[in-house]
Amino acid sequence: MTQLLKLATTLVRHHGFTRTALARSVLALPEPHAEPLSDSAVTALFGQGDAARRTLIDAWLDEGRAHMRAVPVDGVKRALLARLEYNVPALSHLPEVCSIRLIIGSHRYSQDSPRHLDFSRLRDSAFRLLICFLRYSTQQASPTRHVG
Asked: What is the model's pTM?
């Protein structure tokens, strides 16, 4: 199942955080299946309904954390940029992550976790980080970079 989840995370770019991505993961095996998993097989392996999608989202988030750990970084800013780079292929599907996790919830957080989060500070920090990422991406893609 772990191998299928890992393969399914690579399919998020094209299929989103869907049961289809989970079903099609068997087509990317070293010895691929002839057809995607049936819906009942997806349910048996990953959960019923949106629970399967949450399983895929959690696997994708885990892969993102592993990516951050694997990238040599010289500080928090670079680590966060590494995470943003990991997110780029799935950008169009990220609203799904937010809605699924808000509607269904996440099994990772206990009842002891803080109930009050300062979302305005979080939003502002995320926005500043996004601006930094866009500047960084533009500099990396630019054929003539100015040294200064």
From this structure: 0.63
